[in-house]
Amino acid sequence: MIKAIFNILTICGAAGFAGVMLSIGVTLGGYWRSLPTQEFLDWFAANNQFVSRAIPMIFLPTFVGLVGSIWLSWGAPELRYWLFSGACILVVAVLTFAFFVPTNTAFSSGTMDEATGAVKLNQWLMIHNFRIGFGMAAAVFGCIAIKG
Fold first, then answer.
1. CA-to-CA distance for 115 and 38, rounded, in angstroms?
2. How far apart are CA 107 and CA 96, in angstroms?
3. Less Cβ around it within 10 Å: N or C end of the chain?
């Protein structure tokens, strides 16, 4: 029963994370691109805290579930799929902390010029697609792990 709870946390958390990221990319990303760059930067400065709050709420349960799933599958054939899922979550975490946190901080600082803002927004949205893909892959590997 405990193993099932950890597995559910991992799979639902990773799928939920990918869904939140997809929504941000499609809904907000489309809106952000429709704005003149300075309006986007102003919007981001005023609203970044709402976007930023979603990530820890979905990432932490995923991480806890993943650690438990790996631990309780140690030595079992499905371990490799939990490790693949973990690698995907690690990529998401690295992208988030190495690129998105500093870029979001720069967007919301009020010091970024419009030319840089436009380039960074396009870069943000492109890299964001990888984050979505790795989040989805983590959930898929979890599904394969429990099927095995």
1. 9
2. 15
3. N
pLDDT digits (tens, 9 = 90+) for 13-63: 999 999 999 999 999 999 999 999 999 999 999 998 888 887 888 888 999
DSSP letter, residue 36: -
Q: What is the pLDDT of the chain when averaged over all its residues?
A: 94
Distance between first and last Cα of the chain: 17
Q: Where are the alpha helices (DSSP H) in 1-148?
A: 2-23, 29-34, 37-72, 79-95, 101-108, 114-147
This prediction has a pTM of 0.90
The count of C-alpha atoms lying within 13 angstroms of the C-alpha of 66, restricted to the half-sphere facing its C-beta, is: 27
Measured CA to CA, the distance from residue 34 to residue 58 in angstroms comes to 28
Residues 91-107 as b or e (16 or more Cβ within 10 Å = b):
bbeebbeebbeebbebb
Helices 101-108, 37-72: crossing angle, 10 deg rounding: 160
Q: Which tokens is 24 given?
A: 């941000």
